[in-house]
UniProtKB/TrEMBL annotation:
<dbReference type="InterPro" id="IPR016163">
    <property type="entry name" value="Ald_DH_C"/>
</dbReference>
<dbReference type="GO" id="GO:0016620">
    <property type="term" value="F:oxidoreductase activity, acting on the aldehyde or oxo group of donors, NAD or NADP as acceptor"/>
</dbReference>
<keyword id="KW-0560">Oxidoreductase</keyword>
<dbReference type="InterPro" id="IPR015590">
    <property type="entry name" value="Aldehyde_DH_dom"/>
</dbReference>
<comment type="similarity">
    <text>Belongs to the aldehyde dehydrogenase family.</text>
</comment>
<dbReference type="InterPro" id="IPR029510">
    <property type="entry name" value="Ald_DH_CS_GLU"/>
</dbReference>
<protein>
    <submittedName>
        <fullName>Putative aldehyde dehydrogenase YcbD</fullName>
    </submittedName>
</protein>
<dbReference type="InterPro" id="IPR016162">
    <property type="entry name" value="Ald_DH_N"/>
</dbReference>
<feature type="domain" description="Aldehyde dehydrogenase">
    <location>
        <begin position="18"/>
        <end position="484"/>
    </location>
</feature>
<dbReference type="InterPro" id="IPR016161">
    <property type="entry name" value="Ald_DH/histidinol_DH"/>
</dbReference>
<dbReference type="InterPro" id="IPR016160">
    <property type="entry name" value="Ald_DH_CS_CYS"/>
</dbReference>
<dbReference type="InterPro" id="IPR054869">
    <property type="entry name" value="AlphKGSA_gudD"/>
</dbReference>
<dbReference type="Pfam" id="PF00171">
    <property type="entry name" value="Aldedh"/>
</dbReference>
<feature type="active site">
    <location>
        <position position="255"/>
    </location>
</feature>
Length: 488
C-alpha cells in the first residue's frame, strides 16, 4: 500500500462541525524530512468559508461572554486534559509536519498544555481595581470586557504553543475565536482543535478555517465582524495586518522577527556560552524568532570560543527528526530552505568567512528533505545582510569585539529588538546590558530562546506592535477596560 492511500483529509471546524471547504479543494501537507510523505490533506478554503466561521463566532459570543471566568476556565482544563491524553500523537504529527525533533515537539505540546492550565486559572483572578472617587458617596472601579470575535493568525514554527498562547487567553477572557493556522502545519492545528471539540467547547466558540494567508488571513484582517487580530509571523505580513486593522479600527497585536544577539565577555563561563549559543541558535533548525543569530565575542577569548564552538557544531547530527539520534532536523519547507541557502550565498558574496557548513545536505535519504548543515560565519561586518536580516535558519555569525560598549552598540544596530543574552560573571556588565540592550527579552548567562508562559513576551523596535503576549500581560490585548462610577 502506498503512503498516500492511508492519508487522512482534515476539515475546517465551523460552528461545532467538521466541514469541507466550499471550494472542494484540498492541499497536501508534506513531511519536510521526506517530501514524498503526505502527512494529511487540508482544506483550501475561500472567503465564503471564512464568512461562515465569523458568523458562528459572532453568534456564540453572546452566550460565551455570559459564562463566569471560572466556568470558561473549566473548559480550558478539559482541553488540556484532552491534549495530555494525545500528547505523543500531536507531537509526532508536529515533527512529521514541520520537522522539529520529537523531544522538542513533545516539549512544545507539554508547554501548550501548561499554557491552557495557566489561563484556566486566570479565569479566577481579578479583572479590575477600585479607584477612590472624588465623590465620597460614589464607588469607582474598573472592570474588563471581551473584545468580541478575535482572529488568530499563526505561523508554522510553533504550531501548538503559539495558537494556544493566543487562543487560551482569548477564550478565558470571554472572546470567541476564528483561527487561521499556517497552511504548512494545518494538520497539527486540526489536532489541537480536535481536543477543543473533545472537551465539549460550545459550538462556534472556536472555529478553524485553513487556506492561504492571502485569502483567509487577509479576509480576517478585512472582516468587519472581527474585533481583534493577533498575529505571529514575518514583518512584511505583520505590517500589512497592522495597517489593515488600523484602517478599519480593529485592535491588533503583532509578534514578528528577531535578529537576536549573544554577547560573550572575557570572564564568561565559555563552556556555558558555547552550549547556549548552539542551543539558542540551532535548536529547531534556527527557526525561532528568539533564535541566536549574532554572537559578539570579546577579542581576548574569541579564538578559544570559536574553537570550542566549532568542535561541538561539527558533532551535530542532522537527520530525520523522528530518529532519536538526530539533534537537528530539516527546515520546515522548500521555501525556507531556499531562503536560508540564499542568505548563506549572500554572506559569502559580501565577504564573510564561512567557517563551517553552508551546504544543503543531500546524501542518501537526506536528498528527499530540506536539510542544511549547521553553519558558522566569521569576519561578519555589521552592515552585511547576514548581520542585519532575520535568516530563520541554523546560521551563526561570529563578530569580534574589544569591549562591552562596542558589543552593545553593534548589538543594537538592527531594526529588531526581540531577545538578547550576555555571558559574564561581572554584575556591572550585567547591569549595563540590562539597561542598554534594546530587547524585550533579556537573558543573563542563558540562551536567547526560552520563553516562559507565565511571563510577558514581546519585542522592542520592529519585533512587535509594542504589545506583550503571555502571562498576565495577555489581558491587555484580549479585553477592553470599562471605568465604572456608581452612586446609589
Ligand atoms: N516571528 C516568528 O515567529 C516567525 C517569523 N517568520 C519569518 O517570516 C519568514 C517567512 O515565513 P512565512 O511562513 O512566509 O511567514 P508569514 O508571515 O507569511 O506567515 C505567518 C502567517 O500569516 C499568514 N499570512 C500570509 N500572508 C498573509 C496576509 N496577506 N494576510 C494575513 N495573513 C497572512 C500565513 O498564512 P499561510 O502560511 O497559510 O500562507 C501564516 O498563517 C520566515 O523566514 C521568518 O523570517 C515566520 C514564521 C514565524
Ligand atoms: O522561544 C520561544 O520559545 C518562542 C519563540 C517564538 O515565539 C517564535 O519563534 O515565534
Amino acid at each position: 500500500m502506498s503512503v498516500e492511500t492511508m492519508v487522512k483529509t482534515y476539515l475546517n471546524y465551523i460552528d461545532g462541525e467538521w466541514v469541507s471547504a466550499s471550494t472542494n479543494e484540498v492541499e497536501p501537507s508534506i513531511n519536510p524530512a521526506k517530501k514524498y510523505e503526505i502527512v494529511g490533506y487540508v482544506q483550501k478554503s475561500s472567503k465564503k468559508d471564512l464568512d461562515k466561521a465569523v458568523a458562528a463566532a459572532k453568534k456564540a459570543k453572546q452566550q460565551w461572554r455570559k459564562l463566569s471566568g471560572p466556568a470558561r476556565g473549566e473548559y480550558l482544563f478539559k482541553i488540556a486534559n484532552a491534549m495530555e491524553r494525545r500528547i505523543d500523537e500531536i507531537a509526532e504529527t508536529m515533527t512529521r509536519e514541520m520537522g522539529k525533533t520529537f523531544p522538542e515537539a513533545k516539549g512544545e505540546t507539554a508547554r501548550g498544555i501548561a499554557i491552557l492550565r495557566y489561563y484556566a486559572g486566570e479565569g479566577m483572578r481579578k479583572v479590575g481595581d477600585v479607584i477612590p472617587s472624588t465623590d465620597s458617596e460614589g464607588l469607582m472601579f474598573t472592570t474588563r470586557v471581551p473584545l468580541g470575535v478575535v482572529g488568530v493568525i499563526t505561523p508554522w514554527n510553533f504550531p501548538v504553543a503559539i495558537p494556544i498562547w493566543k487562543m487560551a487567553p482569548a477564550l478565558v477572557f470571554g472572546n470567541t475565536v476564528v483561527f487561521k493556522p499556517a497552511q504548512e502545519t494545518a494538520v497539527t492545528a486540526a489536532k489541537v482543535v480536535e481536543c477543543m471539540d473533545e472537551a465539549g467547547l460550545p459550538s462556534g466558540v472556536v472555529n478553524m478555517v485553513t487556506g492561504s494567508g492571502s485569502v483567509i488571513g487577509q479576509g480576517i484582517v478585512d472582516h468587519p465582524d472581527i474585533n481583534g487580530i493577533t498575529f505571529t509571523g514575518s514583518n512584511q505580513v505583520g505590517k500589512q495586518i497592522g495597517q489593515g486593522a488600523l484602517a478599519r479600527g480593529a485592535k491588533y497585536q503583532l509578534e514578528m522577527g528577531g535578529k537576536n544577539p549573544v554577547i560573550v565577555l572575557e570572564d564568561a563561563d565559555l563552556d556555558l556560552a558555547v552550549d547556549a549559543t548552539i542551543s539558542g541558535g540551532l535548536r529547531s533548525t534556527g527557526q525561532k524568532c528568539t533564535a541566536t543569530s549574532r554572537v559578539f565575542v570579546q577579542s581576548t577569548v574569541y579564538d578559544q570560543f570559536k574553537e570550542n564552538l566549532l568542535a561541538k557544531v561539527k558533532q551535530i547530527k542532522v537527520g530525520d527528526s523522528m530518529d532519536p539520534e538526530t539533534w537537528m532536523g530539516p527546515l520546515a519547507s522548500e521555501k525556507q530552505l531556499q531562503t536560508v541557502l540564499s542568505y548563506i550565498r549572500k554572506g559569502i558574496e559580501e565577504g564573510a568567512t564561512l567557517l563551517y557548513g553552508g551546504r544543503r545536505l543531500e546524501e542518501r535519504e537526506l536528498k528527499n528533505g530540506f536539510f542544511v548543515e549547521p553553519t558558522v560565519f566569521e569576519n561578519v561586518s555589521p552592515k552585511m545582510t547576514i548581520a542585519q536580516e532575520e535568516i530563520f535558519g541554523p546560521v551563526l555569525a561570529l563578530i569580534k569585539v574589544d569591549t562591552l560598549e562596542e558589543a552593545l552598540i553593534l548589538a543594537n544596530d538592527v531594526q529588531y529588538g526581540l531577545s538578547a543574552s550576555i555571558f559574564t560573571k561581572d554584575i556591572g556588565s550585567m547591569l549595563s546590558f540590562i539597561n542598554e540592550i534594546e530587547a524585550g527579552l533579556v537573558r543573563i548567562n542563558a540562551e536567547s530562546a526560552g520563553v516562559e508562559l507565565q511571563a510577558p513576551f514581546g519585542g522592542m523596535k520592529q519585533s512587535s506592535s509594542h504589545s506583550r503576549e503571555q502571562g498576565q500581560a495577555a489581558i491587555e490585548f484580549f479585553t477592553a477596560i470599562k471605568t465604572v462610577f456608581v452612586k446609589a
